[in-house]
Write a structure and sequence with these properties.
Length: about 80
């Protein structure tokens, strides 16, 4: 189980870093669905990892991260209809 949680944490970290890096180098806009999906899924994976390790301050940050990504995705999909 520990190995699975570690892999989930690494995948989440990589997703968030990829989203941030691509946005920073203007390869992916912040209103892109892919940017928000990477942030959302990365945040979920990091929540799983941090809760498992009882790192609650980091878990709370990632909960906020997921909420922000969720609201942004809703706005993106509504504006495209």
């Amino acid at each position: 189980m520990k190995l699975l949680i570690d892999v989930i944490g690494w995948i989440g970290s990589i997703e968030v870093i990829i989203a941030y890096g691509l946005n920073s180098y203007q390869k992916l806009k912040s209103d892109s669905p892919l940017f928000q999906v990477l942030n959302f899924s990365g945040g979920i994976f990091l929540i799983i990892n941090t809760v498992y390790y009882s790192a609650y301050p980091s878990a709370i940050i990632n909960v906020v991260w997921v909420i922000i990504a969720s609201v942004a995705m809703i706005q993106i999909f509504r504006s495209r209809k």
